[in-house]
Structure formats: structure tokens, C-alpha cells
């Protein structure tokens, strides 16, 4: 198993399939993974195999390192298209997430005003008012919703705490459209005790998911599939045809949608 642990607090820039030239902001420790999900497809590996020993970066450290990197990129004539909160786990779990967002917007406005501020989140902390308000201030509030099937969530996304998908959907509605839904579609099987299908490309999954998406009224939907090596074996990419068909159904519902293969 070859998975990725990102530097912290700044990494990249790297080319993103969905976002362009992305400068990463990792609010989690640099030597391991810390996440409220334990997804079997996560490029950072399983939580239990990547326990960190270092602390999260401080608010001051994030701002200092980000400013230094932006100054370096400005001098080199290559500014990022997007400042992306991602990395070794769930960014909104940082206790000073909201303040770091404010610092990031200030530095973006100073050094690269055309760049977007983007957060990739699994949505497990959007019930916190400070997190909700901070996500309302970013350009791209990208929240995960892989399915509305509770059993699939437990088997594939594997939340580490309480997770109620109906509650998550209601909290997503509270963004009043300032939200981009991100969904992983894949095929194959995974064995943990017994063989489990991971295929969420069929109508039993896509139909209810699409109804939930329509009820949320997002500004956009991003459907994608596996791109890097996964910690679980037996997972397969969704086909171009499957992703295109799902994308087209979202677009037919009046919602902009992209598919990344």
C-alpha cells in the first residue's frame, strides 16, 4: 500500500483535476492522518495506520507559512488558481478553522486576488456555527455526500463518530445554495471479514442521492472516481460512461455538474 501524507501547513502547488493550480493548506499534523471519516478509498490511508505524533499547526504558523509561499510564487510569476484546504484529514476539525479562513482571505486579497479560497470537507462539523459561517465566507464550499444510504456510509466512509446523513443533508440546505456537492463513485468489492460491494453507480444509489442533491439546491456538483492508490484492495474506478450518465442526470435537473475521471 502506497498512500500519501502531505506536508503541513502548506503543500504544493499541485495541478488539480477539478480546481486548476492548487496551493494546498493542511491544518492537520504533518506526520499522520487525523479525520472524522476513515474512508476505504482515502489516498492518505487508514486512520489506524497513520496516527500522528505531531500537533496541528497553529493559526500563526499557517498564516506565516502561507504568506511566505505566496511571496515566493509571486516572485516566480506563478500565482495559484485556488487556495485549497485539504490534506491529512478533515480541515474543519481545527479549533481555529474560522480564524484561519479569515487570515487566508486577507492574504489571498493581498497577493493573489483572482484566486479562489476552497475548502474540501466531509461535512461532519457543519453543525458548528463558526464552521458554517466560515464556509459561507469562502469561494468554494465543497462538501462530501457519497450516498444517502446509511449502510454504505458505515462500510465505505466509516465515520469515526456519530453521523446522521439526514441531519447532514438538512445542514447542507442551511447554506442556501452556497455549496458544491462532491461525490465519489466507484465499483468493485472490498473484504473486511466478508466481501462487500462498493459499487454506488447503480440506480439504487444514484436515484435517492440525486433527490437529496436536488433538495439541497447546490450551486454545483462534482462527481469523480478513484485517481490514486487506495488503502483497500479490490476497488475499481467508475467508468467514463457511468460518470457521464450521472453527470447528465444532474445537469438535466438544472444543476451544473462536472465529471472527473
In terms of DSSP E residues, the strand content is 15-25%
Instruction: Tell me the major beta sheet.
Output: 8 strands, mixed
Please give the alpha-carbon distance between the first and last residues.
22 Å
Count of distinct strands: 11
Would you summarize the structure shown here?
The chain is α/β, with parallel strands linked by helices. It has helices at residues 59-76, 97-111, 129-137, 150-157, 165-173, 203-216, 240-252; strands at residues 10-16, 20-26, 82-86, 116-121, 140-144, 180-184, 186-192, 194-197, 220-224, 235-237, 257-260. α1 runs parallel beside α2 and α2 packs parallel to α3 (129-137).
Word description of this protein:
The radius of gyration is 18 Å and the shape is globular. The two termini are 22 Å apart. Helix 1 runs parallel beside helix 2 and helix 2 runs parallel beside helix 3 (129-137). The longest helix has 18 residues, at 59-76. The mean pLDDT is 95. The chain has helices spanning 59-76, 97-111, 129-137, 150-157, 165-173, 203-216, 240-252; strands at 10-16, 20-26, 82-86, 116-121, 140-144, 180-184, 186-192, 194-197, 220-224, 235-237, 257-260. It has 7 helices and 11 strands. A hairpin with a 3-residue loop joins strand 1 (10-16) and strand 2. It is α/β, with parallel strands linked by helices and 261 residues long. It has an 8-stranded mixed sheet with strand order 1-2-3-4-5-6-9-11. A 3-stranded antiparallel sheet has the order 8-7-10, with no helix packed on it.
Amino acid at each position: 500500500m502506497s498512500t500519501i501524507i502531505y506536508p503541513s501547513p502548506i503543500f504544493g502547488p499541485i495541478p488539480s483535476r477539478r480546481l486548476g493550480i492548487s496551493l494546498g493548506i493542511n491544518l492537520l499534523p504533518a506526520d499522520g492522518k487525523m479525520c472524522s471519516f476513515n474512508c476505504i478509498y482515502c489516498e492518505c490511508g487508514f486512520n489506524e495506520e497513520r496516527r500522528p505524533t505531531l500537533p496541528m499547526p497553529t493559526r500563526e504558523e499557517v498564516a506565516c507559512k502561507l504568506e511566505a509561499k505566496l511571496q515566493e510564487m509571486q516572485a516566480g510569476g506563478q500565482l495559484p488558481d485556488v487556495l485549497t484546504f485539504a490534506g491529512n484529514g478533515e480541515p474543519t476539525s481545527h479549533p481555529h478553522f474560522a480564524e484561519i479562513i479569515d487570515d487566508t482571505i486577507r492574504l489571498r486579497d493581498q497577493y493573489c486576488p483572482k484566486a479562489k479560497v476552497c475548502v474540501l470537507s466531509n461535512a461532519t462539523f457543519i453543525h458548528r456555527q463558526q464552521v458554517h459561517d466560515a464556509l459561507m465566507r469562502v469561494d468554494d464550499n465543497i462538501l462530501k455526500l457519497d450516498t444517502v444510504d446509511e449502510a454504505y456510509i458505515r462500510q465505505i466512509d466509516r465515520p469515526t463518530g456519530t453521523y446522521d446523513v439526514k441531519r447532514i443533508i438538512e445542514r447542507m440546505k442551511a447554506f442556501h445554495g452556497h455549496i458544491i456537492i462532491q461525490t465519489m463513485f466507484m465499483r468493485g468489492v472490498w473484504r473486511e471479514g466478508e466481501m462487500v460491494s462498493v459499487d454506488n453507480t447503480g440506480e439504487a444509489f444514484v436515484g435517492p442521492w440525486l433527490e437529496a442533491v436536488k433538495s439541497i439546491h447546490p450551486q454545483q456538483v462534482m462527481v469523480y472516481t478513484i485517481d490514486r492508490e487506495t488503502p483497500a484492495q479490490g476497488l475499481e474506478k467508475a467508468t467514463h460512461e457511468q460518470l457521464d450518465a450521472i453527470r447528465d442526470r444532474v445537469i438535466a435537473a438544472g444543476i451544473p455538474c462536472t465529471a472527473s475521471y
